Amino acid sequence: MFQKANLLFLYTETPLHVGSGSSLGTVDLPIQRERHTTLPMVQGSGIKGKLRSAFEPDGNQTDISKAIFGPQKDGSEHAGALSVGDARILLFPVRALAGVFAWVTCPLVISRLARDLQMTGQTELVLDLNSLQASGQNAYIPNNSTVQIANGNENDVVLEEFSFRVISSASAEVQKLADWLASHALPSGVEYQFWRDKIKKDLVIISDEAFKDFCQFSTDVVSRTKLDPATKTVAIGALWTEENLPSDALLYAPLFACDPRMEDKDKPKKKNKENVDADEVLSLVSTHLHNSHSRLLLGGNETVGRGLVATRFLTFKN
User: Fold this and answer.
1) Is pLDDT above 90 for 238?
2) How many whole angstroms separate alpha carbon 318 and alpha carbon 306?
3) Going from the N-terminus, what domains does the chain have, and what CATH number goes with each?
């Protein structure tokens, strides 16, 4: 039974390819997606493995790492104290006619976030979800958005080739969400000040259906080849297409912790000589990421610049 929960936010600094294997569709190597929504996701097992490697960079296991992630060799000895859920999409970047690009999200995704925040005990973000139920070709934006354009007596937001009518009635709620994301979800480094300021203006809430379509058809799809070393031409059968989650997307993964599952005599100790508990497990992960691994490499194609993500751990509040 898990005693504590928290959220780990992942911001893609380069395109991210976490593959789901080969496909018979138009894209040879698609990204991982939820079965029931088709929204992009990253399986928790891959994130947990990357977190473990951050704690064990040389492959050697410490007592703390063993308590958090479990034994390296004999998993039957005991399980780890940390459980990592699948990372879900929260914000998806879409090209805009004004403001270069906007971060889009939808009522379904916001409702999930509210549910997951409640699970962690967070109470700072309280939204009127009923006021954010965008539908059809309507869009909700914060105050002073730079992605809106005037259209007669109305304002529109043009994303890719689609136009959405701005509904101003929920601007205050959208502003509240945008400010919270800037303060708690986007990376906290000084190099992200521009992006934290941008999201306060350029967050757009659209319908679930429109959001799903953008996540389905506005990902990065690139062609990859392998050259014959002698002729420097494409080798036979070595041309394929590959899908990537674009840069500037934001995902989050729930983390769950319990007290270490080993015998009391084997449990690592805090500085005050007490046994490490669930709170300390989450604190150790958060501190280690902040101090040593504020950026992780996820997925495949590391050698061609894929998968660099900035991390931010949401501070747990009782």
Assistant:
1) no
2) 37
3) 1-18+44-85+246-318 (3.30.70), 91-218 (no CATH)
Confidence of residue 317 (pLDDT cuts 50, 70, 90): very low
- Whose tokens are 């840069």? That residue is 247
**pTM reported for the whole predicted model:** 0.93
Question: Could you identify the residue written with the tokens 């891959």?
Answer: 46
- How far is the CA of 120 from the CAs of 277, 281, 310, in angstroms? 16, 15, 21
Whether the CB-CB separation of 141 and 135 falls below 8 Å is answered with no
Number of C-alpha atoms within 13 angstroms, CB side, residue 113?
Answer: 25
Contact 225, 125 (CB under 8 A): no
**pLDDT for 148:** 96
Average pLDDT over residues 251-271: 90
Cβ neighbours of residue 168 under 8 Å, at least 6 residues apart? 155
In angstroms, the Cα distances linking 217 to 21, 213, 245, 316 are: 19, 6, 11, 36
Q: Which two tokens stand for residue 272?
A: 């005050």
Instruction: Give phi and psi for 110, each to the nearest 5.
Output: -65, -40
Report the C-alpha gap between 276 and 283 in whole angstroms.
10
